[in-house]
Amino acid sequence: MIVGIGIDLVDIARFENVIARTPRLLERLFSPAERELRPRSLAARYAAKEALIKALGGSEGLHWTEIEITPEASGRPWFTLTGSTASVVDERGITGLHLSMSHDGGFATAYVVAEAADAAAPADRPAGAPA
To answer: Where does this protein reside within or beyond the cell (predicted)?
Structure first.
C-alpha cells in the first residue's frame, strides 16, 4: 500500500552556484561516493533526497549522508539507507521505496513512492488521516 509520495525539482545552474559558494555543502548532503559525480547528477540526487523526505512525511531522524542513491546493474536508481536513517525508515513501517530521477533542459527531478505492508503502519500517521 502506498503511504507517501514525494517529488522535487532542482534548477541545475542554481544548484551549481550554491555549491560553488558553499563547497562544504557537498560534505553535508552527499556520501563520499556521490561527491565524485558531475553537478547535474548531484542535483538529481539532491532532488531524490528531498523527494524521499516528502514521501516519508518529514526529515526527523534522517541524515542526508545516510541516504545514498546507488544504481543497480541495469542503471535503475536505488536508495541505500544506512545508520539511524535506515532505522527511522524501518520504524515508520516503510517496506519499499521506489525512485525515478531525470535531468534535462537545465533541471533535475525526482519522484519517490513509499510503501508499507499495512496502510496504518506508519506510526506518525495523524489520527483521522486517510489510509
So the answer is: Cytoplasm
